[in-house]
Amino acid sequence: MPSANGISRPDFRRADGRPVRALRNAGTTDGRTVDVHLRDDLVHAVVPADGAPAGELDLDLTGYLLLAAPADPHIHLDKALSFDEIRPPLGDLGAAIAAWEDYGPRLTVDNIADRARRAALRALSYGTTALRSHVNLLPGPDPLRGVRALLRVRAELAAVMDIQLVALAPFTVPDEAIHEALDLGIDLLGGHPHHTPDPEGNLRKLLRIAADHGVGVDIHTDEQLDPGMLTLEQLAHAVRDRPASTPVTASHCVSLGMTRPDVQARVIAAVAAARIGVVTLPITNLYLQGRDHLAGKPRGLTAVRALLDAGVPLGAGADNVQDPFNPVGSGDALETAMLLVTAGHLTPQESYTAVTAGAREIMGLPPAGPRPGARADLLAIRASSLREAIASAPPDRYVVCRGRLVAAGRSERSAVTALAD
Hints:
Layout: E1 22-27, E2 33-39, E3 42-48, E4 58-60, E5 65-68, E6 71-75, H1 83-86, H2 93-103, H3 109-126, E7 130-136, H4 145-156, E8 162-168, H5 175-183, E9 188-190, H6 199-213, E10 216-221, H7 231-239, E11 248-252, H8 261-273, E12 277-280, H9 282-288, H10 304-309, E13 314-316, H11 333-342, H12 348-354, H13 357-363, E14 378-381, H14 386-392, E15 397-401, E16 404-409
Parallel strand pairs: 1-4, 6-7, 7-8, 8-9, 9-10, 10-11, 11-12, 12-13
Antiparallel strand pairs: 1-2, 2-3, 5-14, 14-15, 15-16
Helix pairs in contact: 3-4, 6-7, 7-8, 11-12
């Protein structure tokens, strides 16, 4: 759709899942203007733009930057968008857990599925074509309400995005419920051993159940500031000899960022040797951690720079989106990348890699992006550079998943803003 200045705009009518043959006149992060030709769900060729008019199955991306589409390796769709419904008190992690557990009896399959669907589609509209969601096994007589809700949403959205599910098992939930969740088709097993009376024992139980079902694990690990809580190191030693085909992810790892340099180096070496992927979750950890530090507040992030320097796969996710654990957040991966620049001191490229290639590696997904042979999961955004895209998060976007246009958005640039003299 051309605008008054002749520059193409996204057209909502075209975001109908149709296959895309070529992306024309797209900007790249290295300053080129290219045509990207797709074949089925892969990028077939990337060539200098030839000025040819866009055909019926082409997109004219004049004025847009073409990037790999984000993937979110850690979100809680079952909790998302529940803040106004629950109206929890603002507080630390303990207060958030209590608010969620108190509200648990009122959660229904339909209620959870509705919010999860809206949150997933919101993420898709921003450009995220793959996500991994944790889903709580709930207390009470029906602990699998959230599991059934997210299995429903995963099936409904399978044509437009990849969704992986992790059964988040509190230590109070019977083992039978964990086995049943995995039997229903949950992809991975998770938990939070550091919040149990016996962290090492709980960790080993989760690893044993996962091994029995032949699935990987994604563990909430050391989500606290105590430098002496290093379940991450126990996890690394416990899984070092596992089969290479079994993925292991450690999420949060907050206390790693609080340890002495020598301890940090020792733990990271064990993590690297065990081939564990680490997911950092800046918005929620910045919100929840350090509230009792009246001065010199810690940032509450894991040791992102040291992990990258050691070659550990690093991903970053939205975590909690407007729920008791975080009252704000949009679910936009560019928001996560921006926080890694400001709070984690990563470069814009490193930050965007954490929400794209790093996340996909941890999730076991094929590489994506505008290069030959890669999966055609692509985000086109109206920006001249990656730094500008992260800084401004422009709403003008096209989202392509597996070679099909699945979302488009635009802003009305003709709107007039009145400013006071």
